[in-house]
Amino acid sequence: MPSFCRHNRLIQNCPICTREQSIEARPVVSSSAPRSSLPRTPADAPRKGGGGAGGRSGAGGRAAAGGRSGAGGRSGAGGRSGAGVKIRRLVRGAEDGYRSPLVPGLRSSADADRLAVELGFAADRLEVLSAAPPGLYGEVADPAHELEERSWLAFLVAYLCPLDGEDPFAAIEAARTTWSSGAAPALDGVPTGPRTAHDPARGTKTLDAYRAWARRAGSQQAAFTGEAIWSPERRFARAYERLALPGLHRDARFELLVTLGRLGVYELAAGALQLGGGNEVTVAAKRALGIGDPMLLERRAAELAEACAVPLAVLDLGLHNWGHGTRSTLGVSDAEPDEARLAPIRHALGL
Fold first, then answer.
1. What is the block-wise mean pLDDT of the chain (351 residues), using blocks of 10 residues?
2. What's the whole-model pTM score?
3. DSSP per residue over 70-107, as a string?
């Protein structure tokens, strides 16, 4: 009987599974049918792109101005790299024979070690939030403050995002307003952090939508708490789903709920990474975990977190920083994780 792999291919035809299981791949056989020599009809012809700047060249290849650049990104002259599209070089280590069932997408021990370091940093950050939250996180965690004000401040921190630097909360502190005032923060020209959800063109629409969301539930407390019988994981998932507000992207929603849980404001714990879409975390997860299906991604992410002995929420910031190639500190010190933190992660990854 023919055997099929997890990618729904005959196992001998799958380039991924044949490598993982050391199975000899079936050789590729090209068709012996002769190519048609008939001229192309207009319907078959490639699209033109403004004088060849955005489409394919007449020889069938990509035009120099509109194709992909030699570095792997799109060129900046007439291609899709217009306003609003960011181009950056993907950081990859050299293939050196590295293999791990936890991260089947990786072929470089340098990539795997860099992932281990970023997971270690993200794990340290969550412990700092629980034990000694810095800056405005400390105010959110302080039970002496009114709960609605703490919830609103946590939202502003996640929405604007702390800056990387010596005073990460300065811009948020300058812009913030109180919940009881009903006033919108002063967002004109406000500096924002690397994972911000704020778009100046949208103004305060996302913040207005958040206030309306809380008002429908009766309060922020009621909106975040939901049913008293819910587990922290279910409460997290339901709040994440209900926070699908205009302009509030995945990263801001996830970070808001993680910090509210870690700072002891509400009983919230991530039971899934909520992967999907084109955000940095999902793209990095697909690359490291070697698959694109969201359900399998979530399963492999949970297996990776368990093997590394870290909370699942650690993978959010860890994968983001690893995939981006630069570290977002999100309000804590940029100190490197120590060997005690890294040892179990590196061991799990086979380093």
1. 65 70 59 45 44 40 39 38 45 85 96 97 97 97 98 98 94 96 93 96 96 97 96 98 97 98 98 95 97 95 98 98 95 94 97 94
2. 0.76
3. TTSSB-SSSSS--TT----PPP-PPP-S---TTSTT--
